[in-house]
């Protein structure tokens, strides 16, 4: 969604859907917005409990649909109202949620980003008072390997790299690290991309060799 276009190629099954996630700060409020296909957005809305969209607005050449649901705190049982907002283009969509939000809040949020739909996805560029504190992240599941989280390699994102040198691989370095309570993972630092690899539990040992069969690169 930040304009970085990523291409994956190799012998793996790459047919699984992808999503892209970005954060947009408007004043003191931070919003997380996601993009994918229109089908992805509708599945997301169903997953969070939206039974139907109740209002629709024409926004930036697409339609902004909103629906209401609520979250429940498992400890207290209290319910918190949630507004789901989905901007739909020809094939792709941008979707987010707002706690205690009103339809006017959703319209106002989508006025802080310029949404441009391309054949392979959406660019959502903050403008006005809105800023994006981090590069957007593309999330892609690759069967037999695991979950890939891909973002631009910048001076900010490279801070997550371990202090030791990684193993040399085609196009960059491969690091292995561990998060306490979550297990091991890999970081692949390429020329312009940082890839976090959360391997399938039973494919941990194979992950480096299977990564070697996958080309990940930015394209114009």
Could you write a compact summary of the structure shown?
The protein is mostly beta strands and 220 residues long. The chain has helices at 38-47, 103-110, 207-212; strands spanning 5-10, 18-26, 29-37, 55-59, 62-72, 79-88, 92-99, 113-118, 121-126, 130-131, 137-142, 146-152, 167-169, 172-179, 183-190, 193-199, 214-219.
Q: What does this protein structure show overall?
A:
With 220 residues, the protein is mainly beta. The chain is 11% helix and 53% strand. Strands 2, 3, 4, 5, 6, 7, 10, 11, 12, 13, 14, 15 and 16 form a 13-stranded antiparallel β-sheet that branches. Strand 2 and strand 3 form a beta hairpin. It is globular, with a radius of gyration of 19 Å. The two termini are 14 Å apart.
- Which H/E pattern describes the elements? EEEHEEEEHEEEEEEEEEHE
Q: What's the tally of helices? A: 3
Strand pairing plus helix content: what structural class?
mainly beta
Number of E-type strands: 17
Low-confidence stretches: none
Radius of gyration: 19 Å
Give the averaged pLDDT, no decimals: 92
The amount of helix comes to: 10-25%
- Give the end-to-end Cα distance, rounded to a whole number of Å: 14 Å
Which key phrases capture this entry?
about 220 residues; mainly beta; two-stranded antiparallel sheet; 3 helices; 17 strands
